[in-house]
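Supplementary Data S3. Sequence and structure tokens for construct A.
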Amino acid sequence: MTRNVILIGFMGAGKTTVGRLLAARLGWPFVDLDAVVEKAAGMTIPAIFEREGEDGFRRRETEAVRAVTAHAGQVIATGGGTVMRRENLALLRATGTLVWLRAPLEVLLARARAEGGRPLLAEGDDAAAKRYAARVSVYALADVVVDATQAPDAVAAEIEARLSGAQLEPPEMVPVPAGSRSYAVHVGAELLASSGRLAREVGLGGKALVVTNPTVGAHYATPLMNGLAAAGFSVHRVDIPDGEEHKTLASAERIYRAAVAARLERRDFFVALGGGVVGDAAGFAAATYLRGVDVVQVPTTLLAQVDASVGGKVGVNLAEGKNLVGAFHQPRLVVADVAVLATLPQRELVAGLAEVIKYGAIADPHLLAFLEDRLDDIVQRRLPVLARVVARSCEIKARVVAADERETRGVREVLNFGHTIGHAIEALTGYRRYLHGEAVAIGMVSAALLAQRMGRLAGTEVERLIRLLRRAGLPTTPPPLDETALLAVLQRDKKVRDGRLRFVLLDGLGQAFVTGEVPSQWIKDVLLEQRAL
């Protein structure tokens, strides 16, 4: 079935003008949603606002969305706030490809003033800026994003090229503020060969030691190393064994010895090519070799792209627990090439989704809605959708890291939602039964049930979270475990303070909080409850 092309964005983005041009290029009919609302109401939008207020207009707008999305093969220009109503957004995503016409707010407001007839302008620039800030997180989760500061003809041409696959979406750069160690995450497709150029641009020089494992190395070490060599680096390689059970001091020692053999100096750097195990072990080795050398993270799993490679937490496991030896060591650069996810086993891809769902649960209900609407596209590895997921997850993590880089203020603890019980399950099953994301998924359900017991999370929200995890193919019930042994492992968790275990729970979907007020009996009860779900 032919899908619609749906233009979204703030007032002044040029949706109507670009929409008409794009429709002419595609040979499709053009539909202006505002015009549909006006025709059905028999009055202009300013008149609707005057007589019925914004609520009345939004009700009419939803009726128009239902009518318009009953047809396919159209270019549809929406109003600036259309996508903010969940019903509208779900219908639009189900029937079309969403295209965000992106431009700076000052440009949009200047255009809107020049056009006139915008009721919301009467509220003033501050109110408009607040509306834009509230909407941009939804706009950013469009299927296609284009620069709307170009001429309308150029915008329409770019959209057509993107839709046809003739033009790749340009990479997105997500800044991670970390003081003097600030850096950027580059997200896009076919970025691997650009790693050398990007390393040069951030001032790295000398020798590069690529740390990988045999599985990943067979696919991606050559193009990465060729790109580094083309940028003028002297490139060396060391492999460490694959698997969480090899995130150890022994693997770190292997990296140290390879660095010594290659005669790496303080100005040289490591490149971590792989998933979370490689990224953590190589990052830890970089933090401690010669008292600290630079590291570039090139994550090759979804889990590593959205979590492990960003934030500077590096480390290795001990038999007694996960990540008990580590450091804070920010990378100089992160290159998240979503094209490399093509060779990722399906189970690994799904495990990575657990961390993405975590970000939505703790900080962004709009991301949760996107995952619900676009889950099939993610599982089928549509590159633009994967890029959206990775970029938005990194934005959320970057915001948290900027507020609490070294976990001294408690802000960063929210990133551990699902990890407390998840880590304990991993340890008790020898890091062999579950992938990290699978254990976190179980832990998220445990935490949601604990929040429900506290009266902070509604039962319907718990059910919504469980439903999404299950749709993604993630486990939600724990294995039979000795609860006494589990509580003993929990007491060794890094979040224990003054002998009290701290849990990250939810105060509604999209809002997390940390508490040390979880009775041990509740933990046992919740695990039993989960097994019955």
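Construct B, processed identically:
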Amino acid sequence: MKITFLGATHEVTGSCYYLEGAGKKFLVDYGMEQGQDIYENKPIPVNASELDFVLLTHAHMDHSGNLPLLYAKGFRGPVYATNATCHLCDIMLRDSAHIQEFEAEWRNRKAKRQGKEEYKPVYTMEDALNVLKCFSRCDYERVYNICDGVKVKFVDAGHLLGSASIEVWITEGETEKKIVFSGDIGNMHQPLIKDPEYIHDADYVVMESTYGDRSHGERPDYVSILADIINDTFDRGGNLVIPSFAVGRTQEMLYFIRQIKAEDRVPGHPGFKVYVDSPLANEATTIFSEHVYDCFDEEAMALIRKGINPIAFPGLRTSITSDDSKAINFDDEPKVIISASGMCDAGRIKHHLKHNLWNEDSTILFVGYQATGTLGRSLIEGAEEVKLFGESIHVAAKIVQMPGISGHADVNGLLDWIDAFGSTPKRVFVTHGEDTVTELFASRLREEKGLSASAPFSGTVFDLAENSFVFEATGVRVEKKVGMTPKAQRAAAMFQKLLAVGQRLISVIRKNEGTPNKDLDRFAREIQSLCDKWDRTDI
């Protein structure tokens, strides 16, 4: 009866835990590592084909994104997740597979010219579609007997539609141990979805610590702030452009705007239009609407009972095709444009920035975290000029950032969550946080709460029956590439940005299947012309 910590150890992404118990071998989460990679992760200690099942906390890529890879390596067991998580993964894993395949196509064009070996994608669309067939849908608050000796319960974590903390009971002979995996614990009073449910007993707890060193502060009045921004922008005659993450944040923005319209908070511009220009976001919005009864909070349900859709309203327009997207910028009326990606590094948002950044009457509103090195980060840090599609664009639009929006509990929310355990767990394992944050939060649990707490590194093995470490790993840092000059590093970073744009292109191509032949022919000729221009034969 053992747990091995593999991912999201002293790091925020790549969540993965391997367990052995009751004669079974299984994972909790199998996520992608995203952003800066500091520590090496140990591989799963058995062949993927030997795993009996997977338990999945939620659909975000840093928890689910490597499941198609697991299938490609031979896994054929069930993946247990909540109904909404299964539904969201159906669109998110397919979207991820598009990206993987395009990156392989891009790399192989160059590799073929240089006589290098073929680069294979991390996984394919076929892998994604096949692993999706393995998903088994579970209800909240129901105990499932997965097999002899293992039972589980999914509890609403309040982080994302369908997100869950998972209670796992493992029984061997006369010994039963309960281990709770927090997943990502949600922020309190988020729009639409319920607050996190508390769990009250466990032998062991594995908990996240993303914001384990800071508080979000007082919750802002998002509706009033957003209404003021819309009024100010429209009175100047400009557009409000909102770069937004397709799943979660976009739906929250629609929730706020519905209230703004219902309360007539933009009186000078009745019936103003709101465009959601992201096929993935539009699919996700449909999924949100299909899970009102199992995931929506009481405030949203009160609207449902009145016959009101909390994320729909008069003037809402959805954009699916590229022609739909282009047409938005030929509409001269002031409007709200919500588009992906949230950090502005790829996707349709870049076209809307090109048409609005130079306009001093327009506003660009950021409603999520902007990572270092992204276009979004450059804009909020005061860039006066940016390059879009090879053209230098002067930044004259008003740049605004919405304060305090986060899907994660802050340090106070994390402490409230662990305080709910009435009987003291034998040990708390702190994961899913930045290097120093995991240690700081574990220390706080020891000193302030009197808990036995630690922050394991990847490869650490703990015996749940004996309450003791089998092996305590130390952090092995990822070796940095040596010999790269600053210029070469900048070039490599720029090439990665180019790849990201290319990944978006293949996604757009696939989503245009079924478009009239004359439009597809024009699209193909435009791409061919671009390829002819940039097809390098001198490298």
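Residues 83-114 form the longest helix (32 residues). The chain has three domains: 2-215+407-471, 223-401, 486-534.
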